[in-house]
Write a structure and sequence with these properties.
The complex is a heterodimer of chains A (784) and B (725).
Chain A: H1 8-32, H2 36-39, E1 44-49, E2 55-58, H3 68-78, H4 81-84, E3 92-95, H5 98-102, E4 107-116, E5 119-129, E6 158-162, E7 165-166, H6 168-176, H7 181-209, H8 211-235, E8 239-247, E9 258-266, E10 272-279, H9 291-305, H10 314-318, E11 320-323, H11 341-363, E12 379-385, E13 391-395, H12 429-435, E14 438-445, E15 461-467, E16 473-478, E17 501-505, H13 509-514, H14 523-527, E18 533-537, E19 541-545, E20 551-555, H15 570-578, H16 584-589, H17 604-621, E21 623-624, H18 625-637, H19 643-653, H20 659-673, H21 676-679, E22 688-692, E23 697-702, E24 705-710, E25 716-719, E26 729-733, H22 736-739, E27 750-755, E28 762-768, E29 778-780
Parallel strand pairs in A: 10-11
Antiparallel strand pairs in A: 1-2, 1-5, 3-4, 3-6, 4-5, 6-7, 8-9, 8-29, 9-10, 12-13, 12-16, 14-15, 15-20, 16-19, 17-18, 17-20, 21-26, 22-23, 23-24, 24-25, 26-27, 27-28
Helix pairs in contact in A: 1-7, 6-7, 7-8, 9-11, 18-20
Chain B: E1 2-3, E2 10-16, E3 20-26, E4 32-38, H1 44-59, H2 63-68, E5 70-76, H3 79-85, E6 94-98, H4 104-107, H5 119-123, E7 140-143, E8 146-147, E9 153-155, H6 159-171, E10 177-180, H7 189-201, E11 207-209, H8 210-213, H9 219-231, H10 233-249, E12 257-259, E13 265-267, H11 282-295, E14 299-305, E15 310-316, E16 319-320, E17 322-323, E18 327-328, E19 331-332, E20 337-338, E21 340-343, E22 349-353, E23 360-366, H12 385-391, H13 409-421, H14 429-455, E24 462-467, H15 471-479, E25 486-489, H16 496-502, E26 506-512, E27 516-518, E28 523-524, E29 529-530, H17 540-564, E30 572-581, E31 588-591, H18 600-618, E32 629-640, E33 645-646, E34 661-669, E35 672-680, E36 689-691, E37 694-697, E38 702-705, E39 709-713, E40 719-723
Parallel strand pairs in B: 2-5, 5-12, 6-7, 6-10, 10-11, 14-24, 24-25, 35-37
Antiparallel strand pairs in B: 1-33, 2-3, 3-4, 8-9, 12-13, 14-15, 15-16, 15-21, 17-20, 18-19, 22-23, 25-40, 26-32, 27-32, 28-29, 30-31, 30-32, 34-35, 36-39, 37-38, 39-40
The chains are: A alpha+beta (784), B alpha+beta (725).
C-alpha cells in the first residue's frame, strides 16, 4: 500500500505504527535488562531520528533523554565518522560520554544508521541506565569523584555492532571494567536487540508506506510537534521569568553554598530562552552538569508541565534556546565530574523552570498546569558481595518515593512524583531484598517532609535498612540538601524539609529482639537507639564498609507547598496528622491548628486564636521592604553575614559572568537609598483588574497607571513595573521553626517570608541565604 | 450445537455488563439463543434472571422449562469490579502488616499516580492524583516481625503487638481484617498466628491472608489483592447467594459456576472473590481456545472490537498466557488474569482535528455509551467511527441492533462535514468518513502487528477470530496485509465472548514463589546455551524446594477440585514457570515440561524450554547464560472438562449464496458509491461464496466486504474472510 501523498488519514496511521514499534522495542530493553533502574524505574526509551539526527519520535520512558540520541548522531556526523569509521547497514555505535550526550556515564546510548534500499534514511537509537560503570566507587555515582577521570569508563561512540555482528572483543572489554559484568552484558544485549527489532519493524513500515511518504511524514511529525509547542508557549505572557535554587554540596566532607538562578524568557514568537544570569562555577566533585544534562532536564520537565498533549520529539527541542555560561555548574567542561548531574545539578536547575512555568501558567489562568517544585533524588547505593556470593553494585530503589509539589487548589501527591520519568515506579521491598544483601526495617512516609502550605507538598518516604547476609559491602549515598533545602515553595508555601543520612554500626539488633524491645523503623528511632556507633553523615556520602547487622537510614525529598499555610482548612490539617504525614507539632506551630493530642479533635476556638496571633506576629516581626533592604545592604557592606554566605558571594563575584549578580546587588543598594517619598505611591480614579500575577497579587489599572495590589485586602504595593516583594513586610525566619529536626541550617539558609503589610497574608517565601538579593520573579514585556 | 457427554441438557451463560446483561442458552438441539436485558446495578440478580427470561422467550420456553433442562449455569459478573471502582465494598476494613511498612499501600510503589490512567494523563504530573486508599492510614497497624528473602524468621512476631493491633482495629469497628506481611509467601507462620489471634478475639470476623490470596513475590500487588479480596467479598457473596436462592426457587438445585479472570469457572463455594475481577473480557479468549481446538490449529488470535476498546488475545501451542499483575481500578493486583490486552479503538472512538497542526487525530478518547456517537442522537457532537460507518451506508441506519435503535444519519454526516471534511478541505463527507474508517483500521492493524511481535508469533501460523459488535464491520480493513493463516468471523460475533465463556472449563490456578537461584550452571560458551551434565551442579535444596512447591500446590489443587466434584483422574495439570537469567528482573513465563526435577535431564529440559521461549520472544543472540538462571514464581493450573457445546458440521450446499440475498443498497467504498448486495447472515449456508463488494447483516452486527475481499462459509457456518487474488 504505497502512499504517494501525505494524506491526513495515512499520516495518523503512520504515527500509530511508529509509536507502537518504539514501545515494542522499549519493552525489549526493559525485559532483557539487568538494571533495576531500567526494569523497575523504566529509565530507558527507544527513538527514531532523521538522517540529520533530529528526533522523529521517542517511546514513552525516560523522557529526560529526549535529546540524547540526537546528540550522539550529530556528534558522529559533525566529526565525520562516515569518512573512515563508516556507517553501514547493521552497524550500532555505543556512547556514554556525558559531554557528547549521555548526561552521566551510567546512561549508555546506542545508535544505529538505518538503510533502506541502500540509502541511509534514518537513525535508530536507545539508551538505558546501567547499574555499574567501573568508577572509583560502586554503583556509578562516586561521590568522591573529584574529576571526570574518577567516573569510570567513558566511551565516545564506538562501533559495537558491525554490519549486524556484535563485536565480542568490545563486549568482553566492557564487562571486564565494571563490577557487575553480568548486568553489563545483559544491558548491552538488550539495547542491541531493541535497535534490531526497530530496524526490522521500520523496514516493514517503509515497505508499506513507501520511502517518500516515510520521509515526508517523519519531517512533518517534527514540524507538527514544534507548531504545537510554540502555540502553547505563545499562550503565555511574553516576558522574563526567574527562579532560583541553592545547594550545599561539593564533595563528601566539603560542603559549600552554590546557586543556580535561572531566567526563562518567553518570546512573542513562542521561543523559550533559558539563561542563568547568576550561577556558581563548576567545581571539583560530582555535583555539576554538562549542557546536555541541563537541557534534558528542562525539556523533560516542560513536557510534563505544558507540552503533555503534544507528540514528543525534536520539535519540542526547537522551541528552546539555551544560553548559560560555559564553566558554570550547569554547563561544565569535559574534565569535570558530573555523575550527580542528571538527578542532581540538572534536575535541581529544572525545578527552577518548574516554578517559572507554574508562575507563567497562573497569569493566564491555566491553573491545571501549576505544580510547585518536586521530585529530587536522594539515593542509597551499595556494592560488594551479595547474599549469593556474587559481585554486586546497586541502588536501593526506594529513592523514588519522593513527594510531588502542591498544586493550585490541591495537595501534592505523596510519594509518587518523578519529574524525569512520569511513568516510573520504585519496585517492591521484596524486590530490593531479592537481589541485594539488605533487609529493610521501614519504608514509611516521613512526617513533615512535604512543604507546608494551604496546599501541602506531597510527603516523601524514608528508608531504614539493615545490612543482611553479606561478607563484604560498602554503602554510599548520592544526595545533597543537609544545610539547605533545594526546592522553593510557591506563593507563600514553604519548601520541603532537608534530608539526612544516619548510619549505626554494631547495632546489635538481636539484643533488642531478644528482649522484645522496640526496633528502629524510621530515622527518628535512631535518635534513641541504645546501641552502637551513630554517624550523622552528609547525604552526599562516600562509600564506607558496613558489616552485617549495621543500620542505615535516610530521608527522601518531599514536594514544595503552595500558598499561606494558615489558610489551610483545619480539617485537612487534622487528616494529615491522622495520616502521619505531618506531626502535631507542625499542625500547631506552622498551621496554627490546635488539636487534642489523644483524640486529634480540632479545638476551633484555639485554632482561630492562634491564627490571629500568627497574623499579628507577622505584622510585628515583618520589616517593610525598603527598610529591610537598607539593613541587608548594611550587612553586606560590613560582611556581617555567615561564613558560608560570604564564601558564596565571593565565589560569584569572581566568576567571569558576575555582572548580573553585581547588578542585582547594586540595584538593591540604589533601592535602599531611595527616600520614603519616592517609595510612597497613590492610586486614584476608576480601577480595572488587568491580570492576577499570583493568587495574592493582581495588577490593577487606573488613571495613574498600573499597580500591584493585594487580592485579599486591596492593599496597594507598588507600580506594576516594580517588584512587589520589595514593598512587603519581610521577615527572615529560622528554618528550625518550620522544619524542626530536619530543617536547613540558618547560617546557610533562612526562610525569607513576605507578608502583605495590611492583611498579613504570607504571599511569598524565599528559601535563601541571609543577605541574598530579593528575586524579581516576573518581568512581563507588557503589563497593560 | 450439542453438548459433549450430556445430551439433552442446556448450558446457560450470563454476562452482566455495564449497560446490558446477556444470556446465551445452548439447547439440546444445538440451537443458540441470546437474551438481553438492561443491567440493574442496584439488584444485579434481577438482570441475571431478566436476560435469561428474554432468551427463554426467544426460545419459546418458560424460564422454568429451560432451567429444568439445564446442566450448567455459568455467570460472569462485574459485581466485584464494580464494588471496587464505585467504592461500594466493605466500607471499614483494617490492615495488619509488618511494622515499618504501614504505608506500603499508600506509597503504592510510586506508581499509584499514573497506573491505570491513559498515558498522556500520566505524563501531566500536575493533573494526576493517586486514588483514595481502600484502607486509610489510621486503620493500618504495624506489628513487629520480619521474615527475610529465604523465609527465615529474622524478627519473631511480637504477639503482644499483634494482640494490640487487633484490639485497636476491633475497637475502631472494622468489618474485616486483611493481614499482609513481608515475605509471608515463603513463610506464613506469622500471618497464620495473627489470624488465630483475630479468631480468638472476634470469632467470625472476615480475615484475608496474603499467603493464601496471592502467595507470590512483590508485596505491593500481593497486599492489594489481600485487601481487595476482602473488600469485594460481601457484595459479591450477597449477589451470588441471592441468585442461588432464586435458582432454587425455580427448581434448579446445582451450584452456580462463576467465571474467573483466569478463564475458568469456579463453584461459588470455593470461589476467591478477587479472581472474579475483570473476568468479563476473558470469555472471548476462552472461546478462541475452544474454536482453535475445533479447527485443530495450534495458534489462534482473537480481536474484539466494541464501542470503546479493541481487545487482543492469543492462544498459543501451550494455551493462553496470563497477565501476571493486572491493573484493576488503578490498583495493581497479584492475581494473574488471562491475557487480554486493550487499546483505545472502537466504534465510539472520536475523530477530531488538532487545532494547532490541523491534522486528524483518532482517539483514544471515546464517546462511550453516553452520549455515544452523533448518530445515536443522545447529545454526542464529535464524529466517531460508527458515525463514519453510518454515513458510508455500511451500517444500515434503520437496521441497527436488529432494528431496535434508529440512527440519525443526517446528524452524523453533518458532524463529519463540519468537524472533519471542512477543516481538512476534503471534497466530500464520504471521503472524510472513509478516511476515518481507514485510519481506525490502520491503528488497529498496527496494534495487531505489535501484539504478535511481542508474543513471538507469526501470523502465517495463526488463525484470527473476529468478534465484538464492530469487529466484522472493520476486520477487512484491520486484517488486510497481515497474512493470517485464516480469518474467521463467527455468525454470532457480537455475543462471541458470552458464547466463549459458556465453553469454559473448571479451572483453578495457584502460584508460589520458591525463588530458586542457580548462579553457577554450566555454559556452552560457543553456543551461548546452558549445558547441564549432572544434577549436582545445582544446590540439592533448590531441587527439593522446586519439587516441594509443586507438590504443595498440587495437593491444594486436587483438594479444591475434589470440592468441585472432580476426582484426580478427571483433572489435568499444567506447570508454569516464571524464569529469568541471573541478574535480570523480568521473567519469561512458559509451560514447564516437568512438574518435578528428578534428573539432570529434567533440569536440562526446563532450561532448554526457557531458552527457546526467550529466543522466540527476543531473537537469536540475546541469551545471557553466564549469570545462571533463576526460577522466581511457579504456577500450577488445574482444570477439568465441563459440559461443552458441540458445533455440528454442516453439509456443503454449494457456492451459490443467492438464497441469503436480502436486497441491495448504495454503499461507499474506496472509489465511490457502489450498488452493493446485502446478505442475511442467518441464511448463509456451508460453502456459500460472497464476493465483495457486499454487506452481510446479522441481528447485531454487520460484515463489510470491500471489493478486494471474498467470504466463504465453512462447515461450522463461520465466515472465512479472504483477500482476493
Amino acid at each position: 500500500m504505497r502512499k504517494s501523498i501525505l494524506n491526513p488519514f495515512d499520516y495518523e496511521i503512520f504515527y500509530n505504527r511508529l509509536f507502537n514499534i518504539l514501545c515494542e522495542s522499549r519493552d525489549i530493553i526493559r525485559h532483557l535488562s539487568g538494571s533495576a533502574i531500567v526494569r523497575e524505574a523504566g529509565e530507558t526509551a527507544q527513538g527514531i531520528c532523521l538522517p540529520n539526527g533530529e528526533l522523529v519520535l521517542l517511546s514513552p520512558g525516560l523522557l529526560l533523554h529526549l535529546n540524547t540520541v540526537p546528540r550522539v548522531i550529530k556528534y558522529l556526523i559533525q566529526n565525520k565518522f562516515a569518512q573512515d569509521v563508516e556507517f553501514n547497514d547493521g552497524d550500532q555505535f555505543l556512547c556514554n560520554d556525558p559531554v557528547i550526550a549521555s548526561m552521566h556515564r551510567m546512561d549508555m546510548v546506542l545508535v544505529a544508521p538505518f538503510f533502506y534500499d541502500g540509502e541511509h534514511v534514518a537513525w535508530l537509537g536507545n539508551y538505558g541506565h546501567v547499574p555499574e560503570i567501573g568508577a572509583t566507587e560502586p554503583g556509578g555515582h562516586p561521590m568522591i569523584a573529584e574529576d571526570a577521570y574518577h567516573e569510570g569508563i567513558c566511551l565516545t561512540p564506538i562501533k559495537i555492532v558491525e554490519r549486524g555482528k556484535v563485536r565480542r572483543d568490545l563486549v568482553e572489554m566492557l564487562t571486564r571494567v565494571v563490577r557487575e559484568p553480568r548486568l553489563m552484558e545483559l544491558d548491552t544485549k538488550a539495547k542491541i536487540a531493541a535497535n534490531e527489532r526497530t530496524r526490522k519493524n521500520l523496514k516493514k513500515i517503509i515497505d508499506d508506506f513507501g520511502i517518500d511518504f516515510y520521509q515526508a511524514a517523519s519531517k512533518k511529525l517534527l514540524d507538527d510537534a514544534e507548531a504545537q509547542s510554540r502555540a502553547l508557549v505563545k499562550m503565555r505572557k511574553p516576558g522574563k521569568y526567574r527562579a532560583q535554587v541553592f545547594t550545599d554540596h561539593v564533595l563528601p566532607g566539603q560542603q559549600e553554598l552554590r546557586v543556580m538562578q535561572l531566567e526563562l524568557e518567553i518570546t512573542g514568537e513562542g521561543q523559550l530562552i533559558v539563561r542563568a544570569p547568576v550561577v556558581s562555577p563548576q567545581s571539583r566533585g560530582p555535583y555539576n552538569a554538562c549542557l546536555p544534562c541541563l537541557e534534558g532536564n528542562i525539556f523533560c520537565l516542560t513536557l510534563s508541565h505544558i507540552f503533555y498533549k503534544t507528540r514528543w520529539n525534536g520539535g519540542v527541542v526547537r522551541v528552546y534556546t539555551t544560553d548559560v555560561p560555559c564553566g558554570s555548574m550547569i554547563n561544565c567542561d569535559s574534565e569535570t565530574a558530573v555523575n550527580f548531574g542528571t538527578v542532581g545539578t540538572g534536575m535541581h536547575a529544572a525545578t527552577a523552570i518548574s516554578e517559572i512555568l507554574s508562575r507563567a501558567a497562573f497569569i493566564i489562568g491555566e491553573h491545571q498546569d501549576i505544580i510547585a517544585p518536586s521530585g529530587l533524588v536522594n539515593q542509597l547505593m551499595y556494592g560488594g558481595i551479595d547474599q549469593f556470593g556474587r559481585r554486586c553494585g546497586k541502588y536501593v530503589m526506594d529513592y523514588l518515593t519522593t513527594g510531588g509539589g502542591a498544586k493550585y487548589g490541591k495537595d501534592g501527591t505523596d510519594s509518587g512524583v518523578s519529574q524525569i520519568n512520569p511513568w516510573t515506579y520504585c519496585g517492591d521491598v521484596e524486590g530490593n531484598e531479592a537481589v541485594g544483601p539488605i533487609l529493610e526495617l521501614g519504608r514509611r512516609h516521613m512526617p513533615n517532609t512535604g512543604g507546608f502550605g494551604k496546599c501541602r507538598g506531597g510527603a516523601a518516604a524514608h528508608t531504614v535498612l539493615m545490612i543482611h547476609k553479606t561478607k563484604s559491602l560498602v554503602v554510599g549515598n548520592m544526595g545533597q540538601g543537609r544545610f539547605v533545602t533545594v526546592l522553593q515553595g510557591l506563593y507563600g508555601g514553604y519548601p520541603p524539609s532537608a534530608t539526612r543520612l544516619i548510619k549505626i554500626r554494631d547495632a546489635n539488633l538481636a539484643d533488642l529482639v531478644e528482649n522484645r524491645r522496640p526496633l528502629p523503623h524510621e530515622i527518628a528511632d535512631f535518635v534513641v537507639y541504645p546501641f552502637g556507633k551513630k554517624e550523622d553523615v552528609y547525604v552526599g556520602a562516600k562509600f564506607d564498609p558496613m558489616g552485617e547487622g549495621d543500620l542505615v537510614g535516610t530521608i527522601y525529598w518531599g514536594g514544595a507547598g503552595v500558598m499561606d499555610p494558615i489558610e489551610r482548612e483545619p480539617e485537612k490539617v487534622a487528616k494529615d496528622v491522622q495520616g502521619k504525614v505531618i506531626t502535631l507539632e507542625a499542625a500547631l506551630k506552622v498551621y496554627c491548628v490546635a488539636m487534642d493530642e489523644a483524640s486529634l479533635a480540632i479545638d476551633i476556638y484555639m485554632t482561630a486564636k492562634r491564627r490571629e496571633e500568627k497574623l499579628r506576629e507577622r505584622l510585628t516581626l515583618g520589616i517593610y521592604g525598603p527598610e529591610y533592604l537598607r539593613k541587608m545592604v548594611q550587612f553586606r557592606e560590613k560582611r556581617d553575614l555567615p561564613a558560608p554566605v560570604l564564601r558564596l558571594f565571593d565565589q560569584l563575584l569572581a566568576t567571569p559572568w558576575s555582572k548580573a549578580f553585581r547588578d542585582q546587588l547594586c540595584s538593591e543598594k540604589k533601592f535602599a537609598a531611595r527616600t520614603e517619598e519616592a517609595v510612597r505611591i497613590v492610586m486614584g480614579g476608576e480601577k480595572r483588574d488587568i491580570l492576577h500575577l499570583t493568587p495574592y497579587v493582581k495588577f490593577v489599572q487606573c488613571c495613574d497607571g498600573v499597580f500591584a495590589v493585594c487580592c485579599k485586602c486591596g492593599h496597594l504595593y507598588c507600580n506594576a513595573r516594580e517588584n512587589f516583594k520589595l514593598f512587603c513586610l519581610i521577615y527572615d525566619r529560622d528554618p528550625m521553626e518550620v522544619h524542626f529536626n530536619y530543617s536547613p541550617d540558618r547560617d546557610w539558609m533562612i526562610y525569607r517570608e513576605f507578608y502583605c503589610p495590611n492583611c498579613a497574608a504570607q504571599v511569598e517565601v524565599e528559601a535563601v541565604p541571609q543577605g541574598w538579593p530579593i528575586l524579581n520573579n516576573i518581568e512581563l514585556n507588557k503589563i497593560s | 450445537m450439542q453438548f459433549q457427554n450430556d445430551k439433552g441438557k442446556c448450558i446457560i451463560y450470563v454476562d452482566t455488563g455495564g449497560t446490558f446483561s446477556d444470556a446465551v442458552i445452548v439447547d439440546e438441539k444445538g440451537s443458540f439463543v441470546c437474551g438481553k436485558a438492561a443491567t440493574t446495578p442496584n439488584a444485579l440478580d434481577d438482570c441475571f434472571f431478566n436476560c435469561i427470561q428474554d432468551a427463554s422467550r426467544k426460545k419459546g420456553s418458560s424460564v422454568c422449562e429451560v432451567f429444568s433442562h439445564t446442566a450448567v449455569i455459568g455467570f460472569g459478573t462485574t459485581a466485584g469490579t464494580n464494588a471496587l471502582i464505585t467504592r461500594m465494598g466493605i466500607p471499614k476494613l483494617g490492615l495488619i502488616t509488618t511494622r515499618g511498612f504501614e504505608d506500603t499501600t499508600l506509597i503504592m510503589r510510586h506508581e499509584g499516580r499514573w497506573q491505570g490512567l491513559p498515558m498522556q494523563e500520566g505524563l501531566h504530573i500536575a493533573g494526576s492524583e493517586k486514588p483514595e486508599p481502600l484502607i486509610p492510614r489510621e486503620l493500618i497497624k504495624g506489628v513487629t516481625e520480619r521474615i527475610d528473602f529465604e523465609g527465615s524468621v529474622i524478627i519473631p512476631l511480637y504477639e503482644e503487638d499483634a494482640l494490640e493491633a487487633v484490639q485497636e482495629l476491633l475497637k475502631a469497628g472494622v468489618e474485616g481484617i486483611a493481614v499482609a506481611l513481608l515475605w509471608s509467601f515463603l513463610n506464613d507462620v506469622h500471618e497464620k498466628k495473627i489470624k488465630e489471634i483475630i479468631e480468638n478475639l472476634s470469632p467470625g470476623m472476615p480475615v484475608s491472608l496474603s499467603c493464601e490470596v496471592a502467595p507470590i513475590i512483590r508485596e505491593y500487588p500481593r497486599f492489594n489483592s489481600t485487601i481487595i479480596n476482602l473488600y469485594v467479598a460481601k457484595p459479591l457473596r450477597s449477589l451470588l447467594s441471592n441468585i442461588g436462592n432464586r435458582l432454587q426457587n425455580f427448581g434448579y438445585g446445582k451450584e452456580l459456576l462463576v467465571m474467573q479472570s483466569s478463564g475458568g469457572l469456579s463453584r461459588c463455594s470455593v470461589l476467591r472473590p478477587i479472581t472474579t475481577l475483570h473476568s468479563g473480557p476473558v470469555g472471548g479468549l476462552v472461546g478462541v481456545e475452544f474454536m482453535k481446538g475445533l479447527y485443530g490449529e495450534k495458534i489462534a488470535m482473537g480481536t474484539d472490537m466494541g464501542g470503546t476498546s479493541f481487545d487482543l488475545c492469543i492462544s498459543k501451542e501451550t494455551g493462553a498466557e496470563y497477565i501476571k499483575t493486572p491493573v484493576v481500578g488503578r490498583f495493581t493486583l497479584a492475581n494473574p488474569m488471562l491475557g487480554v490486552e486493550a487499546i483505545g479503538a472502537g466504534g465510539g472512538t472520536l475523530a477530531y482535528i488538532d487545532q494547532v497542526t490541523g491534522q486528524l487525530r483518532m482517539g483514544p478518547e471515546s464517546a462511550g455509551a453516553v452520549p455515544g456517537p452523533v448518530c445515536y442522537d443522545k447529545g454526542g457532537c464529535q464524529p466517531t467511527v460508527t458515525d463514519a460507518d453510518v454515513v458510508l451506508n455500511r451500517i444500515d441506519a434503520s437496521f441497527f441492533l436488529d432494528g431496535q435503535m434508529k440512527l440519525d444519519k443526517q446528524k452524523a454526516a453533518k458532524a463529519i462535514e463540519v468537524k472533519i471534511t471542512k477543516p481538512l478541505k476534503l471534497d466530500s463527507v464520504e471521503e472524510a468518513a472513509l478516511g476515518i474508517c481507514t485510519a481506525i483500521d490502520g491503528i488497529m492493524s498496527s496494534a495487531i502487528r505489535t501484539f504478535l511481535n511481542t508474543k513471538g508469533v507469526d501470523p502465517r501460523d495463526t488463525l484470527l477470530f473476529v468478534y465484538g459488535g464492530a469487529g466484522p464491520t472493520h476486520c477487512a480493513g484491520y486484517s488486510k496485509g497481515l497474512g493470517f493463516k485464516k480469518i474467521l468471523i463467527p455468525p454470532f460475533a457480537a455475543v462471541f465472548s458470552a458464547f466463549g465463556a459458556s465453553t469454559a472449563e473448571v479451572i483453578h490456578r495457584y502460584e508460589a514463589s520458591p525463588y530458586l537461584i542457580m548462579p553457577h550452571l554450566g555454559v556452552d560458551i560457543a553456543r551461548q546455551r546452558f549445558s547441564v551434565a549432572a544434577l549436582k551442579e545445582i544446590d540439592p535444596s533448590l531441587v527439593l524446594r522446586f519439587n516441594d512447591t509443586f507438590g504443595r500446590l498440587e495437593e491444594k489443587a486436587l483438594k479444591d477440585m475434589r470440592n468441585e466434584g472432580f476426582d484426580q483422574h478427571q483433572v489435568s495439570i499444567k506447570y508454569w514457570l516464571d524464569m529469568r537469567f541471573g541478574g535480570q528482573l523480568h521473567e519469561v513465563s512458559f509451560v514447564s515440561p516437568v512438574g518435578r526435577i528428578k534428573s539432570a535431564k529434567d533440569l536440562a529440559s526446563i532450561l532448554r524450554t526457557f531458552e527457546n521461549e526467550y529466543i522466540r520472544l527476543y531473537g537469536e543472540g540475546t541469551l545471557c547464560p553466564k549469570g545462571g538462571a533463576e526460577i522466581i514464581t511457579v504456577s500450577l493450573e488445574v482444570s477439568a472438562p465441563s459440559k461443552k457445546p458441540i458445533i455440528a458440521r454442516q453439509e456443503f450446499t454449494g457456492e451459490d449464496s443467492s438464497g441469503a440475498r436480502k436486497g441491495k443498497r448504495k454503499v461507499y467504498f474506496k472509489g465511490g458509491w457502489r450498488e452493493t448486495p446485502i446478505y442475511a447472515i442467518a441464511k448463509l449456508r456451508c460453502g456459500n461464496l460472497v464476493m465483495g463488494p457486499a454487506i452481510i447483516e446479522g441481528n447485531d452486527t454487520t460484515v463489510v466486504l470491500p471489493e478486494e475481499f471474498e467470504i466463504e462459509v465453512d462447515e461450522y457456518l463461520n465466515l472465512e474472510l479472504r483477500e482476493r487474488g
